[in-house]
Structures are given as C-alpha cells and as structure tokens.
Amino acid sequence: MSLTLRTISREQHLAYIQSLSAASHMQVPAWADVKSEWRSENLGWFDATGQLVGAGLVLYRQLPKIKRYLAYLPEGPVINWYAPNLEDWLRPMLAHLKQQGAFSVKMGPPVVIRRWDSAAIKSGIQSPDVKRLRDIEATFIEPRAFEVAERLRRMGWQQGEDGGAGFGDVQPRYVFQVPLENRSLEDVHKGFNQLWRRNIKKAEKAGVEVVQGGYEHLAEWQRLYEITAERDHFRPRPLSYFQRMWTALNTEDPNRMRLYFAMHENEAVAAATMLIVGGHVWYSYGASANHKREVRPSNAMQWRMLRDAYALGATVYDLRGISDSLDETDHLFGLIQFKVGTGGQAAEYLGEWDFPLNKFLHKALDIYMSRR
Prior knowledge:
Number of helices: 12
Protein name: Peptidoglycan bridge formation protein FemAB
Shape: globular
CATH topology of the largest domain: Aminopeptidase
InterPro entries: Acyl_CoA_acyltransferase (IPR016181), FEMABX (IPR003447), PG_Glycine_Bridge_Synth (IPR050644)
Radius of gyration: 21 Å
Largest sheet: 9 strands, mixed
Family: Belongs to the FemABX family.
Strand order of the largest sheet: 7-6-15-9-14-13-12-11-10
GO molecular function, one term: aminoacyltransferase activity
Keywords: Acyltransferase, Cell shape, Cell wall biogenesis/degradation, Peptidoglycan synthesis, Transferase
CATH architecture of the largest domain: 3-Layer(aba) Sandwich
Helix content: 25-40%
C-alpha cells in the first residue's frame, strides 16, 4: 500500500477522528489549543486512492535560542499500528518532521501490550513475592504489540524511560480501565468490590448528590483541586489551564469535556473532569476536600460518571494513570487500590518512543531533562 503524508486542515483532522470508534483525547485538533505554549500541526496519511487513512496531532516545542524543535505526538499518531508495512507509515512522518526543524521525535503508540484483571491484581497484592504488576501473570497478552515494538526498534526508535505512573511530563504507561462493552450496568455494579458497593450505598444514605457543572463552576473546581494538590504534594495546574481546556474542547465538540461535583449539605466536597472521544471516556482530573470523607463522595461521583459514560454508549471508562508498584509502602499504592475496587483491568501500553533526528541535540535535551 503506497502512502503519502501531508499537512491537513483541522476540519479534515476532526472529521477523520469522528469517523473512528475512538481515539485519544490528546489527538483531537483542539488539544493543540489546550497546549497553547507548543506550536502545532495536523498531519494526514493518504492511500493511493487519495483517501485519508490516518491522522496525527504534532506539538512542537522550541529549544531555547535556536530554531530547532522537539516534535511530540501524545498518544498518537492515529494510524494502523498493526500494519505489516509500519515503516511506510512512519518514515514519511520522520522526513516531514525533520524538514519542519525537529531534532527529535517523541510519540506514544496507543497499543496495549498486557492486561491484568482485578482478581489477578488482588492476589498479587496479597502475595509477599509480588512487588510490581509485571510480577503477576497477565490475564491477556497482545502478541501483535511485541511485533510493533520489534519493528520500531529495527527502524531506530528508542523506548523512552519507563514513565511508571506517568504523572510527570510523559503519558502514563499503566492505566486502569473499566470495560463497558457487552455488559449491563448491573454487571458493572456487581464487578465492584464489597467496599465500593458499601461506600456507594453509604453516600446515598448520607444524601450525597452528584451534579454536573459548567464553565462558571471551574473556580469551585480549582479550590478543591488546590486542596488536593497540597494534601498529595503535587504542583497544581492554574485555573487558566482548565478554563482553556473547557473552552477549546467544548468549542470543538459540545460534549467533549464535563465537570462533576459531589455535593453534601449544599457544599461541594469532591469534583472531577471527564473527557469523551467516541466510545472512550476518561476520568481525567479528580479533587476532594479534606473533610466529609466519611460520606464517600468520590465513590458516589465515580458511579455517576460511569453510569453517564454507559448512557453515552461508551465501550470503556478509563480511570487513567496508575503506578505499576504493588508495594503497600509506595505513596501511589492507594491509587491502584482505589481503582482496583471498580473491578476493571490494569492495562500496560507500549510506552513512549523517541527518534533522535539529531543525536547531539537529542542527547543535550536528555541531560537537561534529567537535571531539571
């Protein structure tokens, strides 16, 4: 199959994404507006008949003082990763990005390599010999993913540093997902562990009400988010980031981003953002107050979001990043413990891959990033 690559319009890119069952929210054209500090470009792959068969959002970050760029395709590009001629898809992309002044390319193939169901993870947590997800036998392995990795290595791509939980500048390699396809809501609820079911009931009894908010409620979201950041020791994004995200994503598609609040006695005690692209729904950011945790607002909110995702016809509800550590002393252990209670699956993606177009500048960036 002969392929050509060229810059496409945002409209073409969006139409292509809308023709698919799902794609990453970081590969929709509007994501470029969210990441406004990067320059962006929409790429399209065309077959011999001139039909658009793949797309990619590229973000360019300029090096200080020189006109050379890191080209980044977060959770993309959106192409046929299992194609036997993968080189024919990626070589023209590298040539194009080099022409655009890129010294290095980073991408995140949206390819799942392994999955572990909740039962396997629970038994792993209970075993003293198990320290990481990889120590547990996977419930599902995708053999074609290993072929993709092998093809990338042969082409000269290098696997990036393992992002682990990926709460830094890279996307998470390990995520937690609740499959919804061919399941009833009753099945999904039955899949929750006892503690989750009990907590949902407890929230209901206590009078916790989950409501949707709009742009005007983002300041209230920010208040809870900053409380969470202080409690969990991470640096929060500014309110302007979420305002930009809301405006950009919902201008592109009025149902791309949602905001939820768990209310108790007329007070917002937990909040979350939700992103929707086709059949893939993400719980994107979460926040909660330091008090009233005993009324279990987070469980109530997740159950409402899951039900709403189901009503939208979603095939997967994605709770995003987890650490691969199953060590109870790890500060991120509570996160996987909370998510495992939903009865979903941990998924390992291929991770991010780098192609140094200029080895000297690529090495210099590596050194700079490691010192930062």
